[in-house]
Amino acid sequence: MIEDIVKEIKKAVGKWIKGVTIKNSQRVYIDIDPAGVREVATYLWKDRGARYSIATAIDNRTNFEVQHHLSLDREGGAMVSLRSILDRDKPSMPSLAPVIKASDWIEREMSELMGIEFVGHPDMRRLLLSSEHWPEGVYPLRKDFKA
Amino acid sequence: MSDRRIIPIGPYHPLQEEPELFRLEVDGETVVDLDVEVGWNHRGIEKLCETKTYDQVPFVVERICGICSTSHPLAYVQAVEDAGNIEVPERALYIRTLVAELERLHSHLLWVGLAGHFLGYNTVWMWSWKYREPILDICETVTGNRNHYAMMKVGGVRRDILPEHVDYILSRLPEIEKFADLIKGAVLDDPVLHARLKGVGVMTADDIHDYGAVGPTSRASGVPGDVRRDDPYAAYGLVDWDVICVPQGDVFAKAVVRVLEMYETIKIIKGCLEKMPAGEIDSKPKVVAPGEGIGRHEAPRGEVFHYVRSDGTNRPIRHKIRAPTYVNLPTYKTSVIGESITDATIILAAIDPCYCCTERMAVYKHKGDPNEPIMTGSDLVRLSQEKTARLRKEFGL
Known about the structure:
heterodimer, A: 147 residues, alpha/beta, Beta Polymerase, domain 2, five-stranded mixed sheet, two-stranded parallel sheet, 7 strands, 31% strand, B: 397 residues, alpha+beta, Cytochrome-c3 Hydrogenase, chain B, 2 domains, three-stranded antiparallel sheet, 15 helices, 12% strand, globular
């Protein structure tokens, strides 16, 4: 079942896919080219009716990783995570917010806590940290952050 | 001539005991725009969890919310179990389900009460909160606490359900069912509530998909998403129950979903007590293998999401948490614009934004005769009178 869904995803947006890990029938991780994140996520969200759940940003020390998690609620409930690997020095990737409203807040959050730039986000204000009291360019969720 | 004004509600606002700032732009009586500001009480729990061991984290995440206090630990332990491929004994799965459903029951009653209070229908408020107490009694008997149960651990649960607990829960369920009937009648058969809540704050199925809204908020708009059924975990796939979903999308529909869900919850509790097998409650894992995992739980307010990455050491290197209100709150923009300012409160309350309200009296161990109360009712009255006298003196009244 999940193998068939992955096959269809590969057929539709395969040019952006670098690799697929099917951890089990309910968890799939797809490595993608960050440039194609909008196309792949839109395919899942719009064409397949997946629910945009949330995104996770991870500091791997050598690079940054952003995973967009979409839940295939209408097709067996598997969680598909789109993994983008970003450059350590200048982490940047296209924003999903112009297409998927649900990603608006989490991209603002990843931007301020992890320092990742989301190109094309319509409203990149801070979400959680105070714009008055928190300094610019200090990202608390990074591993090299010192309190 | 337009008469646009901004009405700020918050950050310490009277509706919910949680800091948030809503800027409602109104034209006369109609809300025309909205801006939400959060982050007034950001606690940095994700960062904190990276410094705790796998067994300490449940106690931290349990304190994210005082109402859905078992939802976060449940989603977290499932994420770790997914990451490290850890088995959980079947009995523990049933106990997890039982505790999570007891929590849903008292959380929904709490919401019904608050919604009644916001509407000025204080009978419903007092009834709901009064009848929530027997459920909290069950929680206290089974887990040792009314909230913050500390039941979840990686690999199983911390406490077993004893045979006398099963009898106790079964003996109290009939009265809870009776209260549910009472609340159902008071909410769903009240003509004033129909007039007040129908057609108010409507959200369509497309709005829900746009914002990724979850829980009763989505199920009241005809989107039948429920993690318990879509991606079954614990014992949800093993007992009989139904997803409640109605199509109208207004505030009344959200009340209908929550009230009817209470009956499904009672069904799940009964199913768990009936089918729970004997056996171990903890697989006692020693290490979490390197890997990544996702844990989800359908909390009373919707899907709770936890992502954990392990590098094989004793603490997570990344722990992402998403509470349901994070995706439900932005929908307020859709539901409130175009509505009257009078309805702004109840439309916000309809998503059941989560706040922490767990205040608990401490119980001390008695050194003398354990049957003797430490303080009698008249002692408490005396304490109160003494305090009033002290304050009078202090303010020269």
